[in-house]
Amino acid sequence: MTGEAATAAAPARPRGLARPLVRATAIELVATGFLLIAIVGSGIMAERLCGGNNGLALLANAVATGAALVALIPAFGPQSGAHMNPVVTLAAVLADGFAWRLAVAYVLAQLAGAAIGVAIAHLMFEVPIWQLSNHARSGAGQLVAEIVATFGLLTVIWGCRAHRPPVTAFAVAAYITGAYWFAASTSFANPAVTVARALSDTFAGIAPADAPAFIAAQIVGSLLALAAERALAQR
After folding, report:
1. pTM (predicted TM-score)
2. Confidence (pLDDT) at 15
3. Under 8 Å between Cβ of 29 and 110
């Protein structure tokens, strides 16, 4: 759902990344795919094992997602920056000079990887691979929650800049695990995740009709986080 924001030194290769753009983009696709496998797969498993106890299922889903992030960010961060999230990539463009051309490639890879990850999770649990969710997630409270969740996610990422990279992985994972519970929306905070979860009529799903409002709220949250970051940097 997240990652460390890389910056661009030249059009051919983002600064700080160990591999050329094509390989970095492919790695971003794989990383995002694994993230969605964790989110959707653990949701299906939790729903099957928790006997209708939605609170226990949400706890299992949150812990599994957080644990996956602890592994994915250090594993893929040196190669692609491990954004796994279009708003993280957008923030890298606006705050760190990440090139727009590279950002477009990353976002496309994130969307493709997310959809592939959902399909793989469905395949593993023997449910229809392609489906649309009927899980309604609407209302002002849910949208406010997405603004707050996205704002907080970017603030955590930027706040960890002074620390070694592993700190970011644990901080982001801890934040997302907590946000599953303190955010009314269960903290999607990621447009690629939102689109992909609309393709899963399972515990983690979101009705396609509700997805655009979630994405708009995530963009608002990211822009507010950027404004706050710039305001604080000027002090």
Report:
1. 0.89
2. 46
3. yes
Q: How many residues does the chain have?
A: 235
Q: Would you state the pLDDT for residue 119?
A: 98
Q: Give the DSSP letter of residue 67.
A: H
Structure tokens at 144: 């406010």
User: Dihedrals φ, ψ of 13, to 5°?
Assistant: -150, 130
Q: Which of 34, 205, 36, 35 is nearest to 132 (CA)?
A: 205
> What per-residue confidence (pLDDT) applies to 96?
84
Residue whose C-alpha is closest to residue 6's, from 52, 73, 62: 73
Any idea what DSSP says for residue 18? S
Query: Which regions of 110-162 does DSSP assign to beta strands (E)?
Result: none
Strands 13-15 and 7-10: antiparallel
In contact, 151 and 144? CB cutoff 8 Å? no
pLDDT at position 12 = 35
* Integer Cα distance of 201 and 135 in angstroms: 7
**Any idea what DSSP says for residue 183?**
S
Instruction: Quote the pLDDT of residue 115.
Output: 98
Q: Residues in the chain with pLDDT < 50?
A: 2-16, 18
8 forms beta bridges with 14
Which helix (H) or strand (E) is 15 found in, with range? strand 13-15
Q: Count other Cβ atoms within 10 Å, centred on residue 85.
A: 32
CA distance 208 to 194: 9
